[in-house]
Write a structure and sequence with these properties.
Number of domains of chain A: 2
Shape of chain A: elongated
Order of helices and strands of chain A: EHEHEHEHEHEHHHHHHH
CATH superfamily of the largest domain in chain A: Response regulator
Strand content of chain A: 5-15%
CATH architecture of the largest domain in chain A: 3-Layer(aba) Sandwich
Distance between the termini of chain A: 46 Å
Oligomer: homodimer
Helix content of chain A: 40-55%
Strand order of the largest sheet of chain A: 2-1-3-4-5-6
CATH topology of the largest domain in chain A: Rossmann fold
Structural class of chain A: alpha/beta
Number of strands of chain A: 6
Chain lengths: ~220, ~220
DNA sequence: TTTTTTCTGGGGGTTATCCCCTATATTGCT
DNA sequence: AGCAATATAGGGGATAACCCCCAGAAAAAA
């Protein structure tokens, strides 16, 4: 960390308060420099492409383009900027998705300031960083979200994913049939197969399951 | 705001980053002074009792004691400190609860910095402040949470509340009947009456409704 | 090309929920 | 004491979801 040139860092968060706090923290370090800030993902991406900072610290929830979408873009085009993702929640599904988007660091916002600094430092040195609170649970076997990811993404077929998504949107079998231009009976078959694959038994089991994991499901099933 | 003595402000948030940002914003104003900061509610409360600041800005979600509990304590003992609550979400139920805890300001964290300053200023002058995004919807008639609060608490009878709570815990009519030592038919009647009062129609409407508002419901129905 | 999987339909059945009734006992309020 | 609301219980019916079976067509994989 004894380079002459300071490490350039772009920060992006739609919460002004957070942006302010983050900037203060970074500017306390003499070898770091905030080369830009953004309040939405698109602006952040444009600035990254323009100025190619060493590191970009992105909030995961931002207007126009979320942090992961920015990360995916950077990763696919092999740009040099290392991405650190900020999040409010320790959501394992997000972490695994982030890793596949080439994210180098994953920091939970409630971290102590020293932990945040340590994370940025690690990534600046070319390493990977996960907030302590996150990494603990990461290797803790099958979390709810892992089940969801594996089961919904891997085991379910395209049509089954479409159906389960529409179920989660409060549509009945008949509605789904109309929407997909297939017979209600076919939809029932799909429902039945979904229940088998997800090991759901009993009346309204699928409905309960789907409403219980509504947000997570709809996040996973965006592509359908 | 031309007093000689600066306005003393205590800030509390379990997110160090936020705390940092908040402190920076406040210290930019010459007539304001951060007289203390805390990362949990108990610490905040102790400091408020000790130093009686003019204003305390409290995050709603904090370890040990949440922001509303602190506000309630301050309010019940008629301490002079004015409370401003910070929150991530525009949850109307929280606002109404906060108002009954004597809270003077309610600021959503994603507000622009100027809005935050305006809010603190308003409360410092003895006024009440609600973030623009919040107040807009507050007077917008029947919000989801108002429906819940009014309908569930006021319109539903004791038994109906017990039943809807057990429905939200994934119990079937038969299970509920066994648990309450009444006939399944009675439970069905209660369900039916609940549906009428909540204006729910169609198959599984109650189940959908209840799962949709699970957390809110169980928060409201703690006493059952 | 052969094989497997998926998608598409259907028959027929059980059950839970919702919905419309009626009716009695109890509780609480005026 | 009388009235209203509530809790209890049931009859009977409609429908949606689940559950088992089967089978042909289409698509994907081997």
């Amino acid at each position: 960390m004894n380079d002459a040139a300071p490490i350039s860092i772009l920060i992006a968060d739609d919460h002004p308060l957070f942006l302010k706090g983050l900037r203060e923290i970074i500017e306390q370090e003499s070898e770091w420099r905030v080369c830009g800030s953004a309040q939405d993902g698109q602006d952040a991406l444009d600035q990254i492409v323009d100025t190619s900072p060493d590191i970009a610290i992105l909030d995961i929830n931002m207007p126009r383009l979320d942090g992961l979408a920015v990360a995916r873009y950077i990763h696919e085009r092999h740009l040099s900027t290392a991405i650190i993702i900020l999040t409010m929640y320790d959501d394992e599904l997000l972490i695994s998705r982030a890793v596949s988007c080439g994210v180098k660091g994953f920091i939970i916002k409630e971290s102590a300031i020293d932990d945040i600094i340590a994370g940025v430092e690690t990534v600046a040195r070319g390493g990977y960083f996960l907030s302590p609170r996150l990494s603990g649970r990461l290797f803790h076997g099958s979390s709810e979200h892992h089940i969801l990811q594996n089961v919904v993404r891997m085991e379910l077929t395209k049509m089954e994913r479409k159906v389960i998504r529409l179920v989660s949107e409060d549509l009945t079998t008949r509605d789904i049939a109309e929407k997909l231009f297939i017979s209600p009976k076919t939809v029932e078959n799909h429902r039945s197969n979904i229940c088998k694959k997800l090991k759901l038994h009993g009346k309204n089991a699928l409905l309960r399951y789907v409403l219980e994991h509504k947000e997570t499901l709809q996040r996973i099933l965006q592509e359908c």
